[in-house]
Amino acid sequence: MNVTEIARQLNVSAKExxxxxxxxxxxxxxxxxxxxxxQAERIVQKWAEYQRKLRAQEHLKEREEIMAHQDETAxxxxxxxxxxxxxxxxxxxxxxxxxxxxxIKILMKNGILASQNERIDFETASIMAEDLxxxxxxxQATAEGAGEEDLERIKNIMExxxxxxxxxxxxxxxxxxxxxxxxxxxxxxxxxxxxMEGEAGGITQHIGAYQIERNGRRISFxxxxxxxxxxxxxxxxxxxxxxxxxxxAVDDGVQPQTKEAVDIIQAAKIPLVVxxxxxxxxxxxxxxxxxxxSDIGLLPEEWGGKTVMQEIxxxxxxxxxxxxxxxxxxxxxxxxxITANPDGPAIGTIIESHVDKGEGPVATVLVQNGTLxxxxxxxxxxxxxxxxxxxxxWRGEDMAAVPPGTPVKILGxxxxxxVGDIMExxxxxxxxxxxxxxxxxxxxDEMTGTKRIPIEGEVKAQFNFVIRGDVLGSIEAIxxxxxxxxxxxxxxxVIAKGLGNITExxxxxxxxxxxxxxxxxxxxxxxxxxxAREKKVEIKYFKIIYELFDxxxxxxxxxxxxxxxITKLGRVRxxxxxxxxxxxxxxxxxxxxxxxxxxxxxxxxxGEELIGEADITELQSGKQKVNDVMLGQECGLKLAGKxxxxxxxxxxxxxxxxxxxxxxxxxxx
Length: 669
Ligand code: GDP
Fold this sequence. Notes:
By secondary structure, the protein is of the alpha+beta class.
């Protein structure tokens, strides 16, 4: 990429840019003409930071001048507030009883660009609050996430649920310790021991948590770096983690964050297992590290204490299995606590959250009680945050229902919730109407033998945009045309609209919702464009309405999944199981309705319950391979899938065909 082009985008002269870059830590030489894309991105980022700093300095100077002229007593009045170590912008605004947009503006003036869900640290928050005349006190370590009442209520729900029915669930483990002691490396090493991953052969997705299987038992690991793990640990309501692994590098011993981690773990009243890491290093000193640990109250078992310790090397993969066995042992001791009630709507804690370019806001939640399902209505802080469009495990595989103790990535949030927030599935009365429609539709489908996916009302694809125009007429014309797009499973939301140039508020709103910004005959100031680049928000300018429609059409067609039409073929009752392997089964039985066809799929029903799906990879009649078997005849089926089929199950045989319909904006037709 040409340096002159970058300079033009950044609104400076190439000369000025090249002169400034070394100061910003980028040395490409004063005569550079071209840079590679990675360098270009760094330049844009560093420049944005620099501009922000300049603006913040200016603002600070202005403020100092104002303060110097102000009567000090006037500032005292606003009152006292308590702030936690990290506070969501939205929560800070409510503590100061001011509109969140107002606070975002004030933050922006101070060079801090944060959306309402983002968290800012205590120092920044207290400067803002003190500026506005508040006296600030630091809240004790417990407070993060939802408000007290919320938590109390949720705790009660969980306890009531457990009293009603408590079944064992996977234990949830958090890894903590001083920086560079090997937390990330250990989490990687544990992930590699995973049999479940091997089976799927898929690509690991970093969703902030993962599960492994050891000795036939599942263990969930929270896999968030740095202070996010702390945040999650501290989320109250229901404790997120059941057991902590404290990583201590034996070449470095106990360090400040080791102590901090121990304090947090003890405050949360959860057991810990110490991983004495880096035993492969020449300067490893296990004895000294144990002594350090004893000094902070963690006495190893062999010295007469109670703390479980295991020497490991995360780098060389030594003793990882032993460490996991220790964890399971501790989990066994805690088994009365590691339970949940899988019935009822789900409750969980957000452990990772971000806005994805293609998928919009996504978050990983650890389900702690109840079962989370596709289609569930998502509530955070009592507000409607959307509806579950898809659930994916850390291997990227789709899940239909998620039991307690399991982390899952959720698609379908309208806005990204904050880490540590509590998510609740709400049963919203206004939805009863849609449920009725769906039920009716199912009956019609049953009658015709056809089922359509997506079922009407279920959003499979979402397109969000912001529109700014020069005259009201053109905005209305654009919105009018887009409103007419009516494709099942596709939702289009206008996040913001208005007259005049694109603003910083538009960019922040677009960032929070994964929206694209359209400017029709309007512009954006350089600072706004800079912010958009930094937040990776796309702004597109148009002067001709059809070109704008072309752009929207392109995007809609790209996100709309083909409609899948399902045709039912028949039913087989399972009368015998011939073979049962991990990935397939061979079963046999009579065709009791329609016909069985090779290469079709089956839904497996046990009584009223749909328990799984499988693919027919071979169909036999007698000893012969055949393409179909008619009503009343016996057949043998080889089924690829993981569901354990039993005698008496009903196999519902169906075919899937996908159909894509191209979306055209009607004004052009
Ligand atoms: P974190 O900050 O606690 O997540 O630490 P990391 O996992 O990033 O590890 C910090 C550094 O220590 C990296 O360079 C790792 O490769 C290294 N490291 C981690 N575990 C071991 C180990 O068992 N042996 C050795 N020799 N190095 C390790």
